[in-house]
Structures are given as structure tokens and as C-alpha cells.
Amino acid sequence: MSRYAVILFALWVVVLAATPFFAENYVVRAAIVIAMYSTMALSWNVIGGFAGYPSLATAAFVGLGSYVGAVSQVNGVPMVLAWALATLVVALVSLAIGALLLRLKGHYFAIGSIVLVELFRLIASSWSSVTGGGNGLNVPLLRWEPDDVGLFILMVMLALMILAFAMNVVVKNTRLGFGLQCIRQNEDAADMVGVNTTKYKVAGFMLSTILCGTVGAVYASWVGYIDPSESFQILLTLKVAVMALLGGAGTLLGPVVGAATFVILEEVVWVNFLSWNRAILGVLIVFLIFFLPNGILRTGAFSFLRSDGASGSKRA
Amino acid sequence: MDIAQLVVNGLALGALYACMAVGFSLVWGVLNVINMLHGSFIILGGYLAYFAWSYWGVHPLLALPFVGVGLFALGYGLQFFLVNKVVRAPVLTTLTLTFGLDMILYNLMTVYFSATPRRIRLDLGSFEIFGVFMPADRLIGMLLALALTAILYYVMRTSKVGRAIVAVRMDQVAAQLMGIRVNSIYAITFGIGAMMAGLAGVILVLVFPTTTSVAGVYLGKAFVVCVIGGLGSVPGALIGGLVLGVVESFAAHYFGPQNALVVGFLLLLFLLLVKPTGLVGVRGYE
Amino acid sequence: MSGPVIELQSVARRFGGIQAVRDVSLKLEEGEVVGMIGPNGAGKTTLVNCITGVHPATSGKVLFEGRDVTRQRPFEAARSGLCRTFQVVQPFPEMTVLQNVAAGALFGQKISRLSQAYDAAHEHLEFVGIDQFADMPASNLTLANRKRLELAKSLAMKPRVLMLDEVNAGLNSAEINGALDLIKKISDQGISIIVIEHLMKVIMTLSQRILVLHHGELIAQGDPRQVVNDPKVVEAYLGEKFAKRIMGNDHV
Is residue B125 included in any domain, yes or no? Predict the structure, then answer.
């Protein structure tokens, strides 16, 4: 296990956690967004990076989490309990769907997962009696000082980010992670060597969605209003995958680096080039594909941060 | 509304879907690339025809060949210089690249063309045959879509390039051994894909108000058509398109128009799980 | 343990219109080394696929230690001790030699801790003689060593039955001799082995019994010398004309 990765991650968490104490509100906001995306990218890493299944379903489960959290709160459930409920529902739904979806491979899997996002969005739009339909849903706001709200949400999101990182560390160093990597490299050979590929893939898929559900629920509580188009964005799901790829899919710090880089770039671009921000992000993505196809952390300079070798070997 | 009307509406819509999706299907089947730009190509074709019509009075039928050539060149260029570099990379890489390119194109279109819905209104009245009612522009759209698809099919079957494209789709290595320049075929196929999208866009703008924000919707429909009809074949796209059109027509009637889309996606998911190679059963890539 | 360790009862497998294996019944006793020969396309690999669940039999039964395993999935076969190697070696390309073998220990043997798996992997690598390459990327091995890697991976799964599918294809005669020694060592450990081979030297040296497959059918089985002289077998390999000519000359 790479000690450097853990240390650097801890430092980064401290930096983000300190923002309310030394920076402006918009920086705190950016820190919250970074923590959110880091959590989602780290979660994606389990199914997309380790297992090699390019899931584009992240937005479906973030949105689901948002809605379960919001609807619960609207119906009187206390906030933190609503978050827990959202997490649980997402876990169960992803278990059910994963069992079916993971029969698909490659392109078909990617499409199936994107369609899921659209499907959930359409359901949220239509089921107005529960979800408020296209008009969206108002969530009871936290009645504290705005600064305190910001601090609180930041801490919650950072906690989720730490959980997501821990999840990656545990997965990578156990049989589950090894099995997922075998699946990625040669699924048939993995089957032959004794890996229950279905079980492992579904487990990986579930792990990749659980914290996304929590993020969604916390986000809903934070902004106080959600609607279908915003909660189930294909753009979001693709951004998360791109962030993990940008940083280096399958590494521990890759998703963190990718998320931070992307969000910071996005903030800069948004502020300065509003009407062109999509094009600039597009250019960034194209650049990434051509010049950093394996992500930032997989370039030679960063090899000390990675632990891809047979680090368990006692004899050299 | 009686069944016959629903069916006819569905077929008219389906013909358009087929024409829209056939290029996407070819690119996916031959290059194994999911072209996220496809929806934007459709809208671009439509916008070009619209502007030719409103600024220069060019009749859309006349605009067709020009849009076709223009979009072909755009597609060919994009593939040759950019997409080809990653065409053998994993799914996520090619999908992300075309997605990134699409973001650029989309932004360019929204900035330069703005997102106001546009439609070319040729007020040609409507027909009624055996109790079925059909606006004339829809009928023309349907016939045009079918004609373009048929022409493509004919070209694929009879021309040298067409046969080469099919060969590359079936077995890229064998095709190379036969002396086919695969990179060239890739670029041509992508160009054809863009061209068909653009032409479909011209038809679209005759029939429905068109704007950049529906690019994603039509891309989604292209997906569904491919899964229904199989990848890389013109007949497959035709069947897929017609099936989707009819399904949507009935779904819109019984469940409401906004739910027609849900039914389409459920159908896609169902087929992905049951028979991902499509009803026409051409072996696609995984 | 009494009774055969593997028993096939009228196993058949078709792929669409092609009957790859038809009505094959055989037994493998514990500790035996059985050779399986037959012309290309005879169904040898398909038969192994049926036994391991890769392409389950379309009719008939496969019994492993008395249990009906006809419908098992490949990973279940691997875990219960039914292991096989491949003609074309399938390593995990981005992993080291050690990690490849550790995979076998982790999942086939169900070791739960990674470090334990690595220790076990070293043992198996030593057994087959390539432990010095433990940290090398598996894709850098020579062909002969890749075959040894396959063997080590299979052994790491603690098999009761090992099916070797043309393990000597592409090896030179020195390498083949090495492989023969290794297979004998494995058999000495009590593992039942089925060896699919084209090289008669290997088959005759190793096998206590030979099975002959042709067009998906078992056309002969028994003592190696007898089977090799069986007219049906000669005909299957050489065709009717040659068979008659050779049998006529009392050729061996």
C-alpha cells in the first residue's frame, strides 16, 4: 500500500477543511464541490478503474439519492436519517439493477448505464405526486448562519470523501480488488481461475454507487431545491468518469487529483468565459485523451505514488 | 385515434428515425466507435438548411446535396485527424473523445446560431387516404427519408467502397489482407455517418421545430434504433427505426407523449438484456 | 475414495448445426494419467470445456467425485478442483508472474489474505522452476516459461483433476522433456491428469491409458500400445487408404 498516497490525501483533506477559516465563501463552496466530485470519482474508480467496466450510471444514483433524501425530508424525516435512508435505497436499487446490467459488456454496458440516467430522470419527471415532477422539490433548509451551513456541509462532504478513499484502499488491498483487476484484464481467465465474476462485479457496482447516493442526499439538503433535469445530468456522469480518467483510473489518488484539477479549471473557465465554457471543457477533454490517455498519475514522474507492482512479494 | 392512424404516424416517424440512425449504426458497427457528435450533426444539417432557406430562399430539397457534402467533409476530417488516433482504444476513451468534440460543436452552434427552435414551414396542406390523415410535409419527409436510406443501401451493396466498408465491418484484419486501406474506409464511413445525419436533419427541420437542446434526444433514439436493429447494417437501421417509430406512436397515445420516451428506453434496456445484437441479429461488437 | 473421480455419461455437445461431441462416456480413476488424442477438430477441447462448464453439455451427465456437475459454471469447476490449461496461454497481461499465480491461489484455493496467496504462489513457482521470474511482467516470458506459468497457476488452485490441453505446442524437444518431468512430478502428488496431445512421444511416455476422439466420438480407449495399433485409430489419423496399406504390412 502506498504510504505516500495516504499522506498526500490526508494533507489535501486538511487543506480543504481549512478553507472556511482562511478563505472567501466562494472558495469554501469550491472546496465542497471538489469534495463531492472526489467522492463520486473515487466511487467510480471501483467499477470503472479496477473492474474496467465503464459505468456511466453515476448520475442516476446521485439523483436517486437526492430524491429519496429530499422526499424523506419533505415528509418529516430528520435530515441525517434522510441521508441514511437515501444511501440504503441506493444500495438496494444498485444491487437489483447491477445484477442485470453487469451482464452487458463494453459499449453495451456503457449505453445501458447512460440509459439508466435518462430513465430515472423521466420517472422523476412523471411521478409528480411524489417527486413534484418537472416543478422540482423544495427541501427544508438548514436554519443556521450561512457560514455555519457551509462549514457543516463541507465537513460532511469531506467525511464522505475520506470514506470513499478508504473504500478504495480496502478494495485495492483485498481479494475483492484483486478479483476486479483480474476481471478487467481478462474476464474469461478470471472465471477460469475461480472468480465468481457476477458476484464481484455486482459488489463493485454497488460500492461505486452507495456513497454517490449519500452525496446526492446531502447536496439536496444543502441547496434546498432539486428538479429532474438538474439531478440526473448525463453531463455529470461523464464528468465524473473523465475526472477519474484524467487523474488516472485504477490508482488511489488519481480520482482525487482529477476531480480537483477539473473543478478548479471549471471554476476558472466559468468565471472568465461563461458562454464558451462548454467548448473549453470539450477542448480539455480532447487534450486529455490525446496527451494523457492514462491519466496524470500514470506518467513517469508520479510513479512513486502508485503501488501497482507485486508489493506483497517477500522475495525479490 | 384509430390503430391505422397510429401505425401510419409511427411509420412516418420511424422512417425519419431510420434515416437519422443509419449513419450512427454504420460508424458503431464499422469503427466500433460510439459517435456522441451524431445528434449535433443532425441539428447542424437542419440549421444549415434552415439558414439557406431563410436568408437565400434556397429550397430544402436543393440544400440537401450541399448539406450532405458539407457534413461528409466535416465527418471525414474529424475522423481522419482526430478520432482515428484513438479508434482502437477502449470504449470509454473513444466515447469521451467524441463527447468532448460534441461539447465543442454544441457550444459553437449555440453561440453562433442560438438555441431558438427553428422549422421550415412549407405549407403544403395534408392528405387523407382511407381515413388516415397525413400532413403533406410529413409525407414528403417520410418518403425522402426512405429514399435516402434506400440510396445508401444501394451504394453499400454495389459500389466498391460500399463493399469495402462491409468487409471492414465483418473482419478488419482480413479486409486489410485483401488490400483495403482500413484507415481510409474508417474516414469515409464516419463521413457517411455525418452526411446521413445532416441529411436527416434537413428532413427534421421540415417536420419539427429543431434546436440544439434536442441533439441529445435524437442521439438517444439512434441508440435505441441500433439496439433494436443491430449494428452496421442499413436494413437493421430501417427496421429499428420503424419499430421505434411505431412503438413511440402507440406509447404516446396510451401513456402520454412525455412517456413515449420512457417506453423507448425501457425497450432498449429490455433488448440489451435479452438480445443485444438486435432483432436483425447482426453480430455487433461488445 | 472409491469410484472414478470423473465420469462422463453419454455427454454430447452441439453448437447450432454442428455436433462437436457425440455420446461420449468415459471414466477417470483417481491418480491416473490418461492421454487423449485425436485429429484436429475431433472435439478434445470441447470435451474439456464440457467438463469445466465453459460450454456445458447439451445432453448427458458429467460427474465429479460422484456429484452431478453438468450445469456448473467455470468458476465453480475451478474451485472444486477441476482445473485446466489452455492451448493459447491466457495470463493476466498487466500482472507479474507472481500475481498471476497468486490469482490461482486466491480464488481457486480460496485463500483470503493477499500475503498468504503470494507465499503460496512462490511455492508453486519454485515447483515448476520459474520462481526467479516472479516479479517480471507475465507478458515478457518466453513461450516455454509461459506454459510453466500456466501450470503453476493451475497448481495454485489445488486441483484434484488437471486437464492439460496441448501443453507442449510450440516447444522444442529439450523443453518438452522438461515438461514431461514436470507432469510426472505433478502426477506423483496424486493429481489425476488428462493430457491432450498430438506428440506421440509425450502420450506414450506419460499415459497409463489412452482415449481416442474422432468427429466427437470416442472410437477407442485402453492400453497405449493396443490403441495405437487399432485399425480404427490408424484410419482416423491417416485415412482409409493409408490405413489399409500400413495394416497390411503389420506396421507399428
Answer: no
Q: At what angle do helices A106-126 and B215-229 cross, to 10 degrees?
A: 130
Check CB contact under 8 Å for A175 and C90: no
* Domain count of the fold of chain B: 1
Q: State the best of B91, B228, B254 to mutate against chain A, taking most chain A CBs within 10 Å.
A: B91
Quote helix, strand, coil % in chain C, to nearest 5: 45, 25, 35
Q: Does C108 lie at the interface with A, CB-CB under 8 angstroms?
A: yes
Please give the model's pTM, rounded to 2 decimal places: 0.87
CB contact under 8 A, C79 and A194: yes
Within-domain flag for B281: no
Q: What are phi and psi of B2, to 5 degrees?
A: -90, 170
| Close Cβ partners of A192 (under 8 Å, ≥ 6 residues apart) | C52, C54, C74, C75, C78, C84, C90
Give C122's contacts in chain A (Cβ within 8 Å).
Answer: 313-315
Which pLDDT band, with edges at 50, 70 and 90, does C195 fall under? Answer: very high
B111–A241 C-beta distance less than 8 A: no
Q: At C233, which helix (H) or strand (E)?
A: helix C231-238
- CB within 8 A of C211, min separation 6: which ones? C26, C34, C35, C36, C37, C218, C220, C221
CATH of the domain at B49: 1.10.3470
- Tell whether B252 is covered by a domain: yes
Architecture of the CATH domain C6-81+159-248: 3-Layer(aba) Sandwich (3.40)
Higher pLDDT, A295 or C181: C181
ipTM: 0.86
Touching chains, C (3+ CB pairs < 8 A)? A
A292 touches chain B (CB under 8 A): no
- Grid cell, residue B25, equals 449504426
Report d(CA C154, CA C174) in Å as an integer: 23
Contact between B5 and B70 (Cβ < 8 Å):
no
Q: Three-class SS of residue B51?
A: helix
Mutate to test the interface with A, among C73, C87, C106 (most CBs of A within 10 A): C106
pLDDT tens per residue across span C51-94: 999 999 989 999 998 889 999 999 999 999 999 988 888 789 88
C134: which chain A residues are within 8 Å (Cβ-Cβ)?
A: 310, 313, 315
